[in-house]
Amino acid sequence: MKIKILSSKILFIILTAVLVFGMACAGCRAVESGALIESVEEAEEAIYREADYGATAEAPAADEGYDKESTLEGSGEDSVSNSGTQYGDATVAGDRKVIKTAYIEMEVGNGKFEEIMFKLSALAEQNGGFVSGSQSYSDSEGNLTSGYVTIRVPSGKYSSALEKVKEMGTIESISSSGQDITQEYVDLESRLENYEAQREILLDLMEQSKRVSDSLEVQRELSNVQSEIEMIKGRMNYLDDMVSFSTIDAYFHEPEKVIEDESDWGFIDSMIRGLRGAVSAFNWMLMAFIATSPVWIILVIVLIIVWQVVKARRRRRAGKEKK
Q1: Which residues does 144 contact at the CB level (< 8 Å), separation at least 6?
Q2: CA-CA-CA-CA torsion for 248, 235, 189, 55, nearest 10 degrees?
Q3: Using one digit for the tens of pLDDT, what is the confidence trace for 194-208?
Q4: pTM for this one?
Q5: Nearest 5°: CA angle at 274, between 273 and 276?
Q6: How many angstroms separate the Cα of 89 from the Cα of each of 11, 86, 129?
Q7: pLDDT tens readout for residues 282-321
Q8: DSSP state, 156?
Q9: d(Cα 203, Cα 50) in Å, to the nearest integer?
Q10: Closest Cα partner for 211 from 51, 72, 42, 36?
Q11: Which of 47, 24, 43, 25 is nearest to 35 (CA)?
C-alpha cells in the first residue's frame, strides 16, 4: 500500500515537472519571437531617425559660409554655384543637373535635303554623340524633300553643335529649354542611402533569426527594400543619361515648288482654251441628259399618246363631214 502511494507521488511530480518545463520553453520562444519583431521595428525606426537627423544636420552645413550680401550682389551662374540653389526647405550645393533640349526648324536649298541629313549624322558622331531618330518625307514626284533628325550630343558640346546646325540652312523657328532636376536627384540619392542602410540591417536580422517564420518575414521586407533600390537606381541612371547627353531636334525642308501660270494672250492658246471650255460644257450637258433620261423617255411616251389621240379625233371629224 505504501509502495502504491509512493509511486503515485513520483508520477505526479514527474508530470508537474514536464508541464512546467513545457510552459517555460513556450515562454522562451514567445520572448525570442517578440524580441526579433521588436528588433525589426526598432531598426526601421532607427533608420528613419538617422535620415531625419541627417537631413536636419545637412542644412546648417550647407549654409556655412553663406553670405546674403554677396549673394544679392552677385549675378549669373557664378553667384548660384557659390551660394548653392535653394529648393523649398533644403539647400542644394554643388553643380546643378540640367536636361538641355532644343528644337530648330529651317529651310535648305533645292536638292540639299539628303546632304543636310548626312551632315547632321556626321555632326553627332564628330561630337561623340549619336542619332536617336530620323524620318523623311517625299513630294509628289517621289523625291525626299523634308523630314527631321534627332541627335544627342554630350552636354558640354551642346552649344557648339547647335550653332553648327543653325549654319546648315535658313532658320524659320528655334526654341531651347533647360530642365533643372537637381532637387529630384538629391532626393533620390537620400532615399537610396536610406534603403541601402535598411537592407544591411535586414540582412543582419536574417542571419540572427532562428525560426522559419521569422526568416520569411525578414525576407519579405528585404525583397520590398531591394525592389525600391532597383527602381531608384533605374530613375537615377535615366536622369544621368538625359543630363550627360543633350537633345537637338532638327526639322528641315526644301522650298516648295511654285507652279507658274503659263497662260498668255496668244490666238492659238485662246482657241485651245475655248475648245476645252466647249468640250467641258458638252460633257456637262451629256451627263445631265443621261441623268434625266428616264424623265425624257416618259415625256416622249406621253407626247406620242397625246399625238395619237389628237390624230384619231381628226379622223373622226373628217369622216362625219363627208357623211
Answers
A1: 113, 114, 136, 137, 138
A2: 100
A3: 999 999 999 988 888
A4: 0.51
A5: 65
A6: 74, 8, 37
A7: 888 888 888 888 888 888 888 888 888 888 888 888 777 7
A8: G
A9: 18
A10: 36
A11: 43
